[in-house]
Amino acid sequence: xxxxxxxxxxxxxxxxxxxxxxxxxxxxxxxxxxxxxxxxxxxxxxxxxxxxxxxxxxxxxxxxxxxxxxxxxxxxxxxxxxxxxxxxxxxxxxxxxxxxxxxxxxxxxxxxxxxxxxxxxxxxxxxxxxxxxxxxxxxxxxxxxxxxxxxxxxxxxxxxxxxxxxxxxxxxxxxxxxxxxxxxxxxxxxxxxxxxxxxxxxxxxxxxxxxxxxxxxxxxxxxxxxxxxxxxxxxxxxxxxxxxxxxxxxxxxxxxxxxxxxxxxxxxxxxxxxxxxxxxxxxxxxxxxxxxxxxxx
Length: 297
Description:
Elements: E1 4-7, E2 14-17, H1 27-40, E3 42-46, H2 52-59, E4 82-85, E5 108-115, E6 123-127, H3 128-134, H4 137-145, E7 147-151, H5 165-174, E8 180-184, E9 186-188, E10 195-197, E11 203-206, H6 211-225, E12 231-234, E13 240-245, E14 249-253, E15 263-269, E16 283-286
């Protein structure tokens, strides 16, 4: 059976059939999936029979994989697998791109459903390329010139006023190593040349502007990312895997399942250093993430 790609929405998402991702892929299939990911930004697979080792093996077709997270603990016995578990705290119901506070954030993220609630618990994935295309010319011209500081030194999942002792401990772990990295607000995709808004929840300040001014501009740009037309709303079924391009998307875990059990396992593909439209690379202000994702020489 040949690879079949079924588009899900106009701007993002496709369902893949005809591929058994529990088995090694030949070069032709691997290339077809890479091309599909470049085109659709997010791919949905059936993953019946896939375990942690199989998820890692599949994801390695797209590149080297990172360790689970720069500061958060991995699944026991699987240092490259991050548990995304309702038992471990609230959903990441905040728009973000994974780990943008380091110099070379993951190029791609895979999520595999382990436990699915009876209702709710969707993952939203937004195309930041479509968002960039939607910008009015004058706003696009401004965005092209901007750089933003991304940091993990805040908690994107729990509002300050709602923090209890357990959440405070998780926050302390999340920020146990503080990272501050400056990225272009408009990133050029290294494979497709597309431009996308590279912001999201870890982007906290525009270089050269005050926090208040930064927030207004970031909120204005973010509103284009999260337009409904730019979003894939994925309702999880058991034994599924979703792979999305972390360089040109954002995502959001919808906290609408009444605290029922929900568990996904995340494996990420090591990425390159972001580059802006003038060819300038991102740079680090604080924090060494080489234990998480070494930067290629």
